Structure formats: structure tokens, C-alpha cells
Amino acid sequence: MHVDEGEVFGFLGPNGAGKTTTVRMLACLIAPSAGEAIVNGLRVGQDNTAIRRCVGVLTESPGLYETLSAYQNLAFYADLYEVENSKKQVEKYLRMLDLWERRNEAVAGFSKGMKQKLAIARALIHEPTVLFLDEPTAALDPEASKIVRDFIVELKSEKRTIFMCTHNLDEAERLCDRIAVLKTHLIAVDTPENLRRQLFGRKTVIHLKTVEQHMIAAVRELDFVQSVQQADHALLVTLSDPEEQNPIIVQKLVQMGAQVQFVNELKHSLEDVYLTLVKEAGQ
User: Fold this and answer.
1) Measured between alpha carbons, how far is 61 from 202 in angstroms, rounded to an integer?
2) What angle do CA 27, 100, 109 make, to 5 degrees?
3) How far apart are CA 158 and CA 10, in angstroms?
4) What is the Cα 96 distance to its own chain's centre?
5) Do 121 and 151 meet the contact criterion of CB atoms below 8 Å apart?
6) How far apart (Å, rounded) are the C-alpha atoms in residues 241 and 156?
7) d(Cα 62, Cα 71) in Å, to the nearest integer?
8) Of 25, 234, 266, 273, whose CB has the highest number of CB atoms within 10 Å?
9) What is the pLDDT along the chain (283 residues), one digit of tens a residue?
10) Strands 186-190 and 178-182, bridge-based pairing
11) Which domains does the chain have, with CATH numbers?
């Protein structure tokens, strides 16, 4: 498996699949029992200290110092990483994640969402080139989740590499350039769109005022049509290249007297893709 520089890479899989264990190995928090991995040009097992310096990690549980303030938490980690101009850096991320006004309050009084945002700031305080996020929007309300998602998009624009474990498939579809599906071993690695096409093909839904059998037969006779199904007042047509082939089908139907109401593509969700892959891997 290879993750490109500047890519947002989604790591998906059921509980117990090995997602968090993989992240902990890549971040040099635990040692792998076999195999090899290279992070930012550095080899896991040989360059562990250097890897820890250039990666940021958001764990599923924030693990903050709750008796300290938000500012003190970040300042402590900034000192550990020997961050230059640490005061400016701490202020930057507290403001960016909307925590500046609460900077002097003890973390113990923060909500789960506020703690999660502070943990994200902690993972970024030393400006890592590679960022590992384990369930980054867990326990966040919709507004805070959007702040984090927008933040990830901003980090992507800065060409940072983001390796993200998540159960939020809608979030993965919106943020990730590619995804990997894991179930103790890799099942698939590709873009969500390519996986969708590989599993389900591309289907056009043509809604007609009335569907007649000779219309179905005429569409089925077209040599590029892979399959045709009727669903109430619509035809579900499987095609290899809908952009080129849809106009031909519509023209054929109109010539036969069909009244076309509208045409759209049937979109399978990433959830459909994920559940299909996991189910097939279990057989």
C-alpha cells in the first residue's frame, strides 16, 4: 500500500480490523512483528525518533492533561517538540479551532467536542508533514464536525499527507482522495468512484411517462447496452459510458413515441461499496 504526498487517505474497516494498530505502528508507538513500512522517507524500526518528529497523531481518546488549561496543554507539547516561537504557534491553532476565548480554562470542564478539537491542535502544533487521524470527528456536534472537515481540507491544500481512520463513510467520501478497506488484511485500495464502478458499473435511470415493452426491447437491442430493467415508470440501464450513450438512448425512445420526463445516474453510496466489500471478504 502506498499513500501519496499531499493525499487524504481514508482507512476504513469494521471494529477489530486493525486500523488503529496500523496507525500506531506507522507512528512508531508500537513495533511491528513483521514486514516493513516507510513514512516520509524514513523506515519504521530504524528511524523511529525521526518519524515521531515529523508526524502528528490524533488518537481516538484525546488523553489531555485535564487539570491544565487549553493553552498550557498546547504549550507543553510545543516545548516537547522544540517548536520555534511556540506562543505564536499555540495561539494560531487555538484561534483556528475556535478555542482561543477558552484558552485559560481547565480542560476538565471542556465538552467532548472541545477536547477533540484541542487534541487536533496538539497533533498539529509542530507542523507535521504526515498527520494520522483516528476518528477525527468522533463525539463532535455538526457545527464542530464541519470546522474539523474544513480544517482537513485546508491542510490538504497545504500539501500535507493525511491518513484518516473513520467510520463516517459520508465524511470519507467527501474528504478522501483514495480509500483502503481493511478486514485484518487489505480488501481494496482505490478512489471511491473507481470502487463504485468496479462493483456496480454505471447505471442510468430514464423516467418515462409510460413504459411499454417494445421500448424496453428497443433499448436492449442497442449493442452498447449491458442490461435493462424496469422499475415502475423508469428504465434502469447499465452502460459503460453514459455521457456518450445516454443521448443515443433518449433519441431512440423519443423516436418510438416515449415521453421522457428526466434522466439521471443511479449513484451507489460509499456505504454500499464498503458493505459489499466487507461482506465479500467474509465469504
Assistant:
1) 40
2) 80
3) 18
4) 22
5) no
6) 31
7) 15
8) 273
9) 999 999 999 999 998 889 999 999 999 999 999 999 999 999 999 999 999 999 999 987 878 999 999 999 999 999 999 999 999 999 999 998 889 999 999 999 998 888 888 999 999 999 999 999 998 887 778 887 888 888 888 888 888 899 999 988 999 999 999 999 998 899 999 999 899 888 888 899 999 999 999 999 999 999 999 999 998 899 999 998 999 999 999 999 999 899 999 999 988 889 999 999 998 887 5
10) antiparallel
11) 8-190 (3.40.50.300), 199-268 (3.30.70.980)
**Cell numbers that stand for 220 in this block:** 436492449
The C-alpha atoms of residue 79 and residue 87 are separated, in whole angstroms, by: 10
Instruction: Record the cell numbers describing residue 263, joined without a space.
Output: 434522466
Residue whose C-alpha cell reads 435493462 in the numeric block? 228
270-281 vs 192-200: helix axis angle to the nearest 10?
60
Residue 229 C-alpha cell reads as 430493467
Q: Identify the helix (H) or strand (E) that includes residue 78.
A: helix 70-80
Please spell the DSSP secondary structure of 215-262, one letter per residue.
Answer: HHHHHHHSTT--EEEEETTEEEEEES-HHHHHHHHHHHHHHTT--EEE
Candidates 27, 230, 233, 37; CA nearest to 132 is: 27
Q: Which amino acid is at 252?
A: K
